[in-house]
Amino acid sequence: MIDHSLVKRFRQDVGDRLAHQRRIDQANGLPAMTGEDERQFARALISQVLEEHARGEIGMGRTPPTIEEEEGLAAGIHAALFGVGRLQPLLDDTEVENIDINGHDKVFVSYADGRESMHEPVADSNEELVELIQILAAYSGLSSRPFDTANPQLDLRLPDGSRLSAVMDVTVRPAVSIRRSRLGKVFLSDLVGNGTLTPDVARFLQAAVNTRQNIMIAGSTNAGKTTLLRALANEIPSGERLITVERALELGLDQFPELHPNVVAFEQRLPNSEGQGEITMAELVRRSLRMNPSRVIVGEVLGDEIVTMLNAMTQGNDGSLSTIHANSSMEVFNRIATYALQANERLPIDATHMLIAGAIDFVVFIEKHNDYDQGGRLRRFVSSVREVNGCDGRVLSSEIFAPGPDGAAVPHAPVQADLGNW
Question: Where in this chain does the record put each Bacterial type II secretion system protein E domain (predicted)?
Fold first, then answer.
């Protein structure tokens, strides 16, 4: 067990020495340390602080920490400085799928094989938990995000790609949910291998991406929409310029330059404490069209940006991708119409249906079941693919892949779009 009170004390000490060195470098006109240089220097400072602590313990006639205890303290201090504090061991565990925190001492962990367990506290108090989230909000993403009484909601992407959502003051205790991104660099072949896609659906989706069809991925929370979106994006030729638009950076396509060397990642900016400086998703989608994109990828549609995105799809930006929450492939059209009603344009239903029919080519529905595959993991699979055929007062569509005997999508109707020889 790590003595977290020591970690907290040593983190402050190392942080102070690191800040002191930054001030010295600045006063001497030296360039600022890079992130990696700073981490290496911090490791040296951590070793120095732990050595001083061991000498002090010996001088007081007490037993100094063992090698194993020192290693644990060093890892904890480094995680507190550059990682996510006491959450780090959970994020280092590749089998952890979701982390739910209801106050500092109620931590529930779910694993990929379906196990759920309680974990030790991630902070010594609710105030310390809020402080941890505030530190993460200050350094994650493209701009600092407030998390306080005036801004009690927070969404951000952690350094490992996991998605964090936190609330305070609207709950009795601060609450945090972390959804792991266990598959970052993922391909359609990987999803065939784990049963998410059948080979037929994978070949179809590969052809749809290559022929620049506009695809909307739908499903419930935690069904695997973002993972499927990454896999589809990784089928896009490396020579294309991609613009991604997200509420909180999550896709991370720019992290793999060997696959996508030309990527610009946009992130929504929240207003500051004076209510100024907000840049909405809709504004970012409009801006993306002026950035010479080959394709625009909107990480998740949750509001009035839907009208801007659909307009983008009909203005020559073929091959766009996005995700949306829905309970079926058919329900997607009603969900889009609902979002469109909330937009500034206030589009009526018939106009929205015409816009959908002209913009979206295919809807792919992915779902999660509470049973397990042969590897002991929760089953996630594409169960339906719907082709948009036109508009006649409502969106006309046909289900080209429908649920088979085990729920996974099987061929159901011929495809009208020209996808080549897939």
Answer: 89-355
Mean pLDDT for all residues in the chain: 87
Q: DSSP character for 94? A: T
Residue 344 and residue 337: Cα distance in Å, rounded? 13
Look up residue 168 and give its amino acid.
Answer: M
Would you say 200 and 182 are in contact if contact means Cβ atoms under 8 Å apart? no
| Domains, the chain, ordered by start | 1-82 (no CATH), 89-182 (3.30.450.90), 188-411 (3.40.50.300)
Tokens standing for residue 78: 């480094």
The pairing of strands 362-372 and 215-219 is parallel
CA-closest candidate to residue 113, choices 390, 380, 403, 377:
377
Q: Phi and psi (nearest 5°) for 27?
A: -65, -30
- Nearest of 124, 248, 101 to residue 171 by alpha carbon: 101
pLDDT at 136: 78
Residue 139: predicted pLDDT: 58
Query: Who has greater pLDDT, 333 or 309?
Result: 333
- Beta strands 107-111 and 116-119 are antiparallel
Alpha-carbon distance of 230 to 228, in angstroms, equals: 5
Q: Are 102 and 175 in contact (CB under 8 A)?
A: yes
DSSP symbol at 417: S
| Confidence label for 183 from pLDDT (cuts 50, 70 and 90) | low
Say what the pLDDT of residue 131 is: 83
DSSP, collapsed to helix, strand or coil, labels residue 130 as helix
Give me the phi and psi of 269, to 5 degrees please: -110, 130
pLDDT at residue 377, as a whole number: 62
Selection from 143-147, 305-309, 315-319, 407-411 with the highest mean pLDDT: 407-411
Q: Provide mean pLDDT across the span 15-39.
A: 84
User: What's the CA gap between 263 and 244, in Å, rounded?
Assistant: 8
> What distance in Å separates the CA atoms of residue 259 and residue 242, rounded to the nearest whole number?
11
